[in-house]
User: Fold these one by one.
Assistant:
Number 1:
Amino acid sequence: MCPTITSTGARFAAVGADFALTFPPDPVWVRACRELVRTSFDTVRRAAGGALRELAETAVLLTSEAATNAVTASATAGCTRPVTLCGEWLAHGALRVHVQDAAPGVPYVDTPAEESEHGRGMLLIAALASRYGFCLDGPGPGKSFWFQLEHAPGTAA
């Protein structure tokens, strides 16, 4: 089982999540996902220090990539079920973000052709996240992809 926020019901209802958004699998919603993560940093005043400001930028980038992957997987499969993004601040100051979609298949790191305009999202996540993974044992069909970011020890929260 992947590290997950407690969920209830038929869909990924993020009980205990610090922020969540359920949206149709349409690329226009990826911007809202980025803004939600950015707002979370601002709201909890965690982005005051330089290290956490950088963490916020990384979180926004990786959220954009993960949400785009879920939307793309859904579109490719003809899946119209909603995508859910949720995040939680962990006790030690780390941020974990989950993106759940109902599309079949699993995310994987690929090496796209140099001239390709797509296919680098998982490379970025693998390079920048402290931890990441997916699980298939969530509520309903599809998968829950997650990544975690941690600020460097000794930096101000």
Number 2:
Amino acid sequence: MANNQTVLRHTEDSFELQTNNVHEGAARVRDLTPAQRRAVLFAQQQVIRARAAKKAKDERQAALARMWMQEEGGDARSMPAAAGSSEEAYAGTHQVSLREAIGHVLRDLRTKDHKTLREVSENAGVSLGYLSEVERGQKEASSELLSSIAEALGVSVSQMLRMVADYIESLQD
């Protein structure tokens, strides 16, 4: 339902009477105080930022999903031959430390589960940067941290250590 409202408008050198249609429930800007106007403007900006952040997040997730689909498609056809040869070439030129092997296995578990560093670090109670350094073999994690990371990845510490042993053994063969 629309109500008519008569408003006195002031222009540079005159005053005018103008009739406006006002709909029930519609907020009128001129009834707001300056502080309320700032609050409305701030809320509108927050909504715009939230929409942009959601769009960016959705785009990142779509890109990750595409990447995982491509990896799974490529892994299914060429994994045994390509993975073995690259691991052998790497082992031939570089002695793998236990720290690097643990990092390799942790990253492999995380990417196969399609989990991000952020998700695993939050679930394990470890900082994202530290987890990244552990995965790259730059930091040596304590047994307590390895336990919480393994739990966040859905495996026991013994399973994870067996995978590390298998990985090292595969590089030595």
Number 3:
Amino acid sequence: MKGALGFIGVFLSFLSEPTRGVTPEPFACGDATDRCPDICDLCQSLGQPSLDCLSTLNQHLCLANFVGAMGSLQSADRCSWGLVKVSYSNFSLCTEEMSDCLRIPWPNSQVERLFVDVHHEYFRDCPSEELSDPPEAVVFALAMTPICLIPIMVSLVVLKTKNGDGSS
């Protein structure tokens, strides 16, 4: 039985191998946007594998535009979502477009690292609105209300069924 499972595993891995002896291209090109052919041509001219090219594109196109937009804001203004959201959304869309054009799933670990670095660089001093627990009296009232209503509802059901009156 173990031999059969081993054979099936090797057979399935052979079937799932995408290249089957063909030399893989350094990257795959998608058609998510009109810019994809240009992005793929750039990657091909750089001669980099798709992940390396994605890193280069994210650094030199997406991050550079975001850094430029953030450079025009004062430090205090960086914490105002109304002033940052357009630049942040454009940055996010740019990284997604680069990934889609190179047929790399988005988000991926490389993009996540980039966003963590951006947050560390630009938003670490922003005050966070931390959630806190409500006062104990509110928690007690919210917990006790259904507990008290259940016996009342049960007794109403029992009274209705004892009388034999099925109608309301």
Number 4:
Amino acid sequence: MSAMLAQADQQFAQGPHERDPAWVAHLSEAELAGEGGLCWRGAGAFQRGIASQQHAMAGFGSRYPRSVQLTQTSLAEGHLGMGEIEAAISHARAAVDAAKDLTSARATTHLHAFATRLQPYRDNRHVQDFTDYLRARTRQPTTPTAV
């Protein structure tokens, strides 16, 4: 996977090519970093995933609030995967705050899925506070969605 992600970065750095599919024209460096972060996290390489997600956040700035919110949730997932509960919750709280300005159902669905993954830590005061915080600021999705 490392070689494939490196190849994607190299291809992107070379700029557009006539053989590129049309959707590639809209892909930014930040989006590529964010997608790479999801790949690393999915492979269990949480630290590399977090680094990629942080790179994405820096590139999004304030121009892409939905991408920022989803990336905050992904950072929370990465920290949770590393057992860093307080860091995970810090990012998740930021994602909750960002979600209030969005109309994206996916944003809140991801947050509630994250909260479900916190259940093994439900006795942790920070987890309890976050769960209350999430519940007070969002509506629970009505249908379960695989995330």
